[in-house]
From TrEMBL:
Protein name: Enoyl reductase (ER) domain-containing protein
SMART domains: PKS_ER
Domain of life of the source: Eukaryota
An annotated Gene Ontology molecular function: oxidoreductase activity
Origin species: Pseudictyota dubia
Domain Enoyl reductase (ER): start-end pairs: 2-213
Amino acid sequence: MGKDLPLSPPEPAVLGMDFAGTVEAVGDDVTKFKAGDEVYACAGGLANLQGTLADYIAADAKLVALKPKNLSMKEAAALPLVGITAYEGLVRSGIENGDSADKKILVHGGTGGVGHVALQLAAKHFGAKVYATCVGTPEQMELIKSLGAQAAINYKKESVEDYVAKYADGKGFDIVYDSVGGPNMLKSFEAATLNGNIASTVSLCELDLTQAH
């Protein structure tokens, strides 16, 4: 995290936000967890909270959850912030409004860290029809389809106009989840339907929005 971010912990600091581990002890008011529980969370590395890259940490129980039994510690430790980012972006974009099965979702960067989780949540949890862009290697195209997308889009070969016509009836996608950012945001505006929603997970940048009209 950069020093300019207002929520960065003071130096010297322990880095890291996500973790997975085993509970060693709990506070007097904690009833959800006990010693020996396997848990995971995004619970450090911000404001006055030291990070999670340590053998032991003190974590707020409200930020912690039991680790799913089908995930290894390594898998669980990689998921919290990514999962929160993907889920919140979709929900705040209105994926739960009305019938999710009727919605068409475009995920930019469908094989990226956040993108591939957003793809799976949109398709498998919310039941929407999901399409995702990628560089277009055979491995990436296959991965996107295996994660539940209706189709993988090679953004280097297909223009926004082409894949909107092909997959969104020429009208645009109900939600565009942009995990790429920068100039790609203009493609997100172009791909969204009238009154559609766009979620971006990437840092702030300056864009000429006149090109979107």
